[in-house]
Amino acid sequence: MQKNNRSRKLSDLKIIGIGSPFGADAIGWILLDQLQQQLTQAGLLEQEKLSICFAKHDRPGPALLEYLQGSHCVILLDALASEQTAGSVIELSLAQLLQQEGLCSSHGFGIAETLALGNVLGILPAELILLGIAMGAAGIQQNHNLIAKQALPQIEQRIMAMVSQKLKPDFPER
User: Fold this and answer.
1) What's the whole-model pTM score?
2) Domain 9-167 adopts which CATH fold?
3) What does the DSSP 8-state code read for residue 77?
């Protein structure tokens, strides 16, 4: 007999802000704070059916793998160097991330390389997506709080859809 996935409480959903407290790298952290506030106001953090964990990590590199352990579903929030309009949200699945090289990193060993290592070791969560926030052509010269404000509705909508899906019963009622 299979166990109901709802019995698993060890961080059903983990939302991780990647970056640092400095400049454009702070976007993931800013969004994480705003998102946590929105989900709290919506009462979703008080749901008994779903455990949501929020964490900030300063350019974690391979240490990210340790933070992913024990998680079923992970959402990474990070600033992306991109020519797309500043504040645009770029969603990348785990499969897409595993095909990337040098994604999101100016620090040498970035998210894509870390996830490739985790994939080889077989320790990645069942579900993982990156919600990247485009910094636009000007990148570091942009107003980071404004970019976060522009991206928040789309990120919030995507995460709310994921949370709603996870709160649905496993089996249809008869």
Assistant:
1) 0.79
2) Rossmann fold (3.40.50)
3) E
